[in-house]
Amino acid sequence: MKQNKIGVGIIGASSDGSWGGIAHLPALQALSNFRVTAVSTTRQASAAETASRFGIPHAFTDPYELALHPDVDLVTVAVKVPEHDKLVRTALKAGKHVYCEYPLGRTTEEATGLLQAAEEKGVRHFVGLQARTNPALTYVKDLIAGGYIGNVRAVHCNYALPVYSTRSKQINQSRVYLLDEANGANQLTITAGHLLDGITYLVGSFSEVSAILETQAKQVKVVETDEVIQATSPDHVIVNGILANGAIMSTHIRNTHIGSLSLEINGTEGDLRLQSKENFMFQIDSFVVKGAQGSNKKVEELPIPPQYNRLPSELNGGPAFNVAQLYSQIYTDLLENTHQAPDFRTAEAVHELLDKIRIAAKTGLRQKV
């Protein structure tokens, strides 16, 4: 780390629409305390193109070379889930701090193994559960803690996505891996995983869950080849649960033509509502906060105080926004040795919760968490 500026090497940041390219690079460019010093992709031409476009000094095809470079303090793994285990271990082998996108692994066993490996190395580890750093969620969390709605009694999420293949029954070649449940990247692990982590961040952990997981679009055509793929990943997710504080939670994540996303929290003294502006994905969207208290039946918008936004004004939305909020939190953690940003232990807890949901769906029985 030079002059308190953290050098970041990103594995998987091609400029062709990858998550690293559309979220991580713009996020880091907006933060003066970071500098992207290296990028790695599977093709040298792609890595060189990204490096040239974003002014990054080093481009690699070998992720271990990236991780070993002295200008890299933090390695970001922003590739498909099946590659996470290998690439995180590459960063750990080089002795570097690591940020990995969520899901951390294909399975809970992989996630636990990476947590143990990172702890043994003694490096800092972070995970991309960036909804926790969304200013709207942080504000609502503080409102709840401050007694705005009294004791929490119910949490309900209306979540409809227009981006999965149930509606169209076709998929681009680059996203075919999402259809295979063994790859650990699907409607349950990504969509529900981010949402349920956000709910636990707001109102606490679950004590028990019940669930329905269904694959409605079992055969999906690949756009580029017309090949028909047999899908095994769930595309509809219903989760009901009881939280440790006794509140009841419910959500139905499904695929629709028109997106819709809102989260309502009901308490003994009032109600709070997070309404998405984009109606896209929980971990990406920006939200309007609304509330009503006591006998006042009128729901009013509650403007988010400016101190909840850590970012410069030029970055005010889109995929990079919450990622940049998370990097800002990571900077403080690294500089001051605090532990505010979500890490591999946070990810492991979400993986374990999803395991309980799978068992509940398979058995039809409530599962203690």
Automatic annotation (TrEMBL):
Origin: domain of life: Bacteria
Record GO terms (molecular function): nucleotide binding; oxidoreductase activity
Stretches assigned to the Gfo/Idh/MocA-like oxidoreductase N-terminal domain: 7-128
SUPFAM superfamilies: Glyceraldehyde-3-phosphate dehydrogenase-like, C-terminal domain (SSF55347), NAD(P)-binding Rossmann-fold domains (SSF51735)
Keyword Ribosomal protein carried by entry: no
Keywords: Oxidoreductase
Residue ranges annotated for the Gal80p-like C-terminal domain, each copy included: 135-276
Entries under Gene3D superfamilies matching the protein: Dihydrodipicolinate Reductase, domain 2, NAD(P)-binding Rossmann-like Domain
Name of this protein: Oxidoreductase
Originating species: Paenibacillus beijingensis
Lineage of source species: Bacteria, Bacillati, Bacillota, Bacilli, Bacillales
